[in-house]
Specification:
The protein is mainly alpha-helical. Helix content is 83%, strand content 0%. It folds into two domains: 188 residues, no CATH class; 210 residues, no CATH class.
């Protein structure tokens, strides 16, 4: 039997210790992502022909954009699961994972069926050389078969984060990247499969991670109460909350992809050196995101649990604790970029002209963490609260400001582009902050039904 209202535990006040306990496994797992990219590059980069490296770069870029577009399967699952945990509804916790896995498999199968036009269009947009494009297409047609596994893994990771089981997510990601690296070496160096070997390594690693993740799910479910409702799993109407949250997250992600692609495309107009310098500086954002994502994910789990319990003091404590750690990391990042930015640039490139160009635009990156930190943190808060509409709207509001600012500052060249991108980030952070204040004002009254997020109300109605 599942837990009941009488089983509720006393409210707990969240501190920075709670946030750190959840965040460090996510931060550590994030570090493994660029490590895998470095191994891919090093293994293929030592082949006698550079077209293999170009092919893997094109293929990996294509799948980064394609799979990131369905990242809502992770975020939506986290938010709704954490709220179900807060309500102590184990049956709903089970159902949410099953529903997310059904959606992941369905989307993955559709991607495989549409692989030919999707891969063709995606590689056409990336526009590589004829030789590299041919190899990239071969790579992509192998790796596309990993789609169901990748998307199912998103759902599993989100489900465990929603239950504050971040060490399990670390184990899954370490296994994924560890198997991938080992098979890279075996297939490329040992079997001589070149760029196709990298694709096969990723494919096998993704399904290995899925098998491990499902095993961990089975073990974890033994300790859960409740039962999985097969009727609810088959009934389309029971997917309404998940679909509502995920559709907003999907549109929001498209906006972020557009903003990133627009920045890259406009930077390319200034020449290869400026394009390369921008790419180096964007790695600084990725470095900062390692830690900030960890705190945001912790905020997702704790704020979602608080919303599910309607424990608003806990909600505020979780936001404040995550905010303190996020601001500390943002401050450290700014200091590191200001003092050691030149050394970081030198680590990422040994081309004198790229180093000099990147150093010219480094001040924009020094300012970025102080502005971007709020968007990372509040994204996590709104995912936990399942207020995905606010996340969607603020991204597109930021884009509506981004494009005119870029147009007005075109005469300033790449400096104008960086200023527009900074404005995009500023508007996104500020508008999310305004939405958060509105959320607190309108949803925090214990006497008001308005305190319950729209996406969660149907569960309460059923209870």
């Amino acid at each position: 039997m599942g837990r009941t209202a009488s089983d509720h535990q006393p409210s707990r006040r969240y501190t920075t210790r709670h946030i750190w306990k959840l965040a460090w496994p996510i931060i550590l797992s994030n570090v493994t992502v660029p490590l895998l990219g470095l191994v891919d590059t090093a293994v293929v980069g030592h082949l006698p022909d550079s077209r293999y490296l170009a092919a893997v770069t094109l293929g990996a870029t294509l799948f980064s954009f394609l799979y990131w577009g369905f990242g809502f399967l992770r975020m939506g699952t986290t938010g709704l699961t954490s709220q179900a945990v807060g309500r102590e509804d184990d049956s709903e916790v089970r159902l949410l994972l099953a529903q997310s896995l059904v959606m992941a498999c369905a989307i993955g199968i559709v991607l495989i069926l549409l692989s030919k036009p999707l891969i063709g269009f995606g590689l056409w947009l990336l526009d590589g050389s004829a030789a590299a494009m041919s190899l990239a297409a071969s790579y992509a047609h192998i790796r596309i078969f990993s789609a169901p596994a990748v998307l199912a893994n998103y759902a599993i990771l989100g489900w465990f984060i929603g239950q504050q089981k971040t060490r399990i997510t670390l184990a899954i990601l370490l296994l994924t990247n560890g198997v991938n690296i080992a098979l890279d070496l075996l297939f490329v160096v040992g079997f001589g499969l070149a760029s196709d070997g990298v694709a096969w390594a990723s494919l096998i690693a993704d399904y290995s991670a899925l098998a491990f993740g499902l095993w961990r799910v089975a073990v974890h479910c033994r300790g859960l109460g409740g039962e999985l409702s097969r009727r609810a799993l088959r009934a389309w109407s029971h997917y309404s909350a998940l679909l509502r949250v995920n559709r907003h997250l999907f549109v929001r992600t498209l906006g972020l992809l557009f903003a990133q692609a627009f920045f890259t495309a406009q930077g390319a107009d200034f020449g290869d050196t400026t394009l390369a310098a921008n790419a180096v500086l964007l790695q600084f954002i990725m470095l900062t995101s390692f830690a900030l994502d960890g705190f945001a994910n912790a905020a997702e789990a704790l704020t979602g649990r608080s919303v599910g319990r309607r424990a608003w003091d806990d909600f505020g404590d979780a936001v404040r604790a995550a905010g303190k750690l996020s601001l500390m990391v943002a401050g450290v990042a700014m200091l590191v970029f200001a003092v050691g930015g030149g050394h970081l640039i030198a680590l990422l490139t040994d081309l004198p002209e790229v180093r000099a160009t990147a150093a010219e635009y480094l001040p924009w990156m020094i300012a970025m963490p102080a502005i971007a930190v709020w968007s990372y943190l509040l994204d996590g808060v709104f995912i936990g609260a399942t207020e995905s509409r606010a996340m969607r709207d603020t991204v597109w509001l930021a884009i509506a400001c981004y494009l005119p600012v870029w147009w007005l500052t075109r005469d300033f060249g790449n400096h104008g582009l960086w200023f527009a991108f900074l404005c995009f980030t500023l508007v996104r952070s500020a508008s999310l902050g305004a939405c958060y204040l509105h959320y607190r004002k309108t949803r925090w009254s214990p006497a008001s039904r308005a305190e319950i997020p729209r996406e969660s109300r149907r569960y309460l109605d059923q209870g």
